[in-house]
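Example 4.3 (complexes with small molecules)
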Amino acid sequence: MTSRNPHAARRAELLRHMAGIGVDGLLVSNRRNIFYLSAFRGEDSLLLVRRGRSQLITDGRFSEQAEQETRGIEIVVRKKGLMATAAATARRGKVATLGIEAEALTVAQAEDLRAALGRTTLKPVRGLVQRQRMVKDAAELAVIRRAVAITQRAFLDTLPHIRPGMTEMEVAHILDRTMIELGAEGPAFETIVAAGERGSLPHARPTERRIRSGEAILFDWGARLEGYCADLTRLAFVDRIPPIYRRIYPLVLTAQRRAVAQVRAGRKTGEVDAVARGYLKAHRHGKDFRHSLGHGLGLDVHEAPSLARGVETTLRAGMVVTVEPGIYLPGRAGVRIEDLLLVTRKGHASLTSLPRSIEAFLIRS
Ligand code: ZN
Ligand code: ZN
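Answer. The structure with zinc ion bound is encoded below.
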């Protein structure tokens, strides 16, 4: 198992987790999990991870791509149904207990599989590969850092193009296009550009609403690169900063700083959430912080661990998480500040470096 092939190392680690729950084969059907374990990016395929050689079950459309993208995996090009071929492959590999991903396989697929398996036992498992994905290896961190660099550069390059009268949608298009020009595969999720009072919608989609002088613009955006995501939130202001933001922005910023200071290996994610939530509550904005503090990020924009109320996941070195408190005043204003952190043994490293001060992105029209 050489470090030159991170996918083989990930499969080896997965085999150890599988042994711990008594499965000697795992049929991976979640596309991101398949990519994580094999580097294969095609569709309609399954990865059977087992001791000895793992197998990728695919069809003629993807066989050449599978040979190019994967290493150390046998490519099985199916001639009959996907589940029937998977069952036959597991039987041929003498798998006694076959794990299936309960969140990813449909009931129909599980039934087809069971019908074709014969004496092999089927065991649904939950979040096995996702738990492994929480801790990023060096190859993943390198890609995430590059995705962040593109994300930040694209934002800085977009700001000078913004003029009052442009729509949220126009600005979002410039930002998306700039990320692609800088090398991104595309936006990691639908870019949020929310002008003025629309900032109070945590998941605002860009509209034809025109940006005016004297208002805030909330950006929540991120590039996708080689499958990996970045995710950042900043506010820009056109010409001047409205008084309401002078009041609430510093509260969100302090809530974020306090929470960030808690991020280190050994901390429970719910405890980090509680620090930001407690601070905003003490300043009578507890109810205006209407989502969890943050989330893990990698191949999915939102993945484990969740930094949320009551969640007991322990932070470990190598996890990548967002910290993104907010205050939302419906119909008036919204502030969210989001940064990406790498959890380290003694604390954390900030993966994002855009300034956070309220004056940082003041656009002069
Ligand atoms: Zn975000
Ligand atoms: Zn986020």
